[in-house]
Amino acid sequence: MSQRARIAIIVIAAVGLVIAFFAARGSEDADDPPVGQGATTPAQTSTGRPEGGTEAPAEAPARTTPPAPEIPVVRVRAGKPVGGVQRLDFEEGERVRFRVRADAADEVHVHGYDVTKPVGPGRATLFSFDGELTGRFEVELHGVGAEIASLRVSP
Description:
By secondary structure, the chain is an alpha+beta fold. The chain has two domains: about 1-30; about 75-155, Immunoglobulin-like, CATH 2.60.40. The protein contains one helix and nine strands; from the N terminus they run αβββββββββ. The protein has one helix at about 5-25; strands at about 75, 80, 85-90, 95-100, 105-110, 115-120, 125-130, 135-140, 145-155. It has a five-stranded mixed beta sheet with strand order 3-9-8-5-6, with no helix packed on it. Strands 2-1-4-7 form a four-stranded mixed beta sheet, with no helix packed on it. Strand 8 and strand 9 form a beta hairpin. The longest helix is centred in the N-terminal third of the chain and has 23 residues, at about 5-25. The radius of gyration is 24 Å and the shape is flat. The N and C termini lie far apart (about 70 Å).
């Protein structure tokens, strides 16, 4: 076998491993907090200096950004919402955001807003739109005709 053929096989194998790694991760990372959230800082003494007895240069206090609001997840198993019909509450003008995870391929339709997206196993489908219309709106799993969530946008 030639040197080029060996290199080609190694490169193809490496690319295959990288693709398999990312495919195995899927969209499960979607529920993980962004990097940096929940990070801890070194323990400090009452003087404000790091433990260990060495003098550290004075640092400006770390800026903290408020955590992003948690995105609700509606889970669907066997055509029904796990735990019953979910209630999603938002304020008018607020960004409506929620995810749907389903164990089978289907479409989810948000009535009133007329937003439809495919859902299926191995991925979380994100719904994100401006809450411009007030009222109660059914979130329906189209294929089986089941309500999976009730969206309320309050004035």
